């Protein structure tokens, strides 16, 4: 830093938040509360268990950033100078997707697409925006798993498919 700019930084006063006192850091605490409320709303509306909550929070953040705004321009548009560029799918809706050949062995006569659950968008690294990939859970992954609220989820690991194309069923959102 130049000497003049360094002097400005030294003279600048700012108030630090006190550790263990969320009241002193209200802006970020309100942001965290909003994300937690959105995560719970996504899970409730989708009828999904808490074990997929780790995917619901980032999906809520994307949905919030591409749809909500007071001045008509969502935060996504302000950041990237353009719209999100894809259809907004509700968290937990049913979609058809083409599984990666490395994850699922398919036979020649098998359909190319399978039914799954939409759980989010895969964002590009370094805050470069959305790279056109969706996160989908295969229903077959849940075949032997109890999703009852009283069941522990520590042994259930989520490995969503990362795909470029999803399609809604003919009936629309499920």
Features:
4 helices; 174 residues; 5 strands; 5-stranded antiparallel β-sheet; alpha+beta
Notes on the protein architecture:
With 174 residues, the chain is α+β, with helices and mostly antiparallel strands. It has helices at residues 3-11, 26-46, 53-67, 75-80, and strands at residues 94-97, 114-123, 130-138, 161-163, 166-167. A hairpin with a 6-residue loop joins strand 2 and strand 3. Helix 2 (26-46) crosses helix 3. The longest helix is centred in the N-terminal third of the chain and has 21 residues, at 26-46. It is globular, with a radius of gyration of 21 Å. The termini are far apart.
Please give the count of helices.
4
Report the sheet-strand fraction: 15-25%
H and E order:
HHHHEEEEE
Query: Which percent bin holds the helix content?
Result: 25-40%
Total strands: the figure is 5
- Which word captures the global form? globular
Unreliable spans are: 1-6
| SSE class | alpha+beta
**Gyration radius over CA:** 21 Å
Trace the largest sheet across and list its strands.
4-3-2-1-5
What's the average pLDDT? Answer: 80
Distance between the termini: 56 Å
Report the sheet with the most strands, covering strand number, pairing sense and barrel closure: 5 strands, antiparallel
């Amino acid at each position: 830093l130049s000497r003049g700019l360094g002097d400005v930084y030294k003279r600048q006063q700012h108030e630090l938040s006190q550790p263990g006192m969320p009241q002193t850091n209200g802006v970020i605490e309100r942001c965290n509360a909003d994300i937690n409320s959105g995560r719970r709303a996504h899970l409730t509306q989708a009828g999904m268990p808490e074990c997929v909550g780790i995917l619901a929070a980032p999906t809520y953040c994307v949905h919030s950033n591409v749809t909500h705004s007071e001045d008509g321009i969502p935060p996504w548009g302000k950041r990237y100078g353009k719209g999100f560029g894809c259809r907004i799918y509700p968290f937990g809706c049913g979609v058809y997707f083409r599984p990666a050949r490395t994850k699922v062995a398919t036979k020649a006569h098998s359909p190319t697409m399978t039914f799954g659950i939409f759980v989010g968008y895969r964002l590009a690294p370094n805050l470069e925006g959305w790279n056109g990939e969706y996160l989908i859970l295969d229903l077959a992954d849940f075949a032997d798993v109890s999703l009852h609220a009283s069941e522990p989820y520590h042994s259930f690991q989520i490995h969503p498919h990362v795909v470029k194309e999803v399609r809604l069923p003919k009936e629309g959102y499920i």
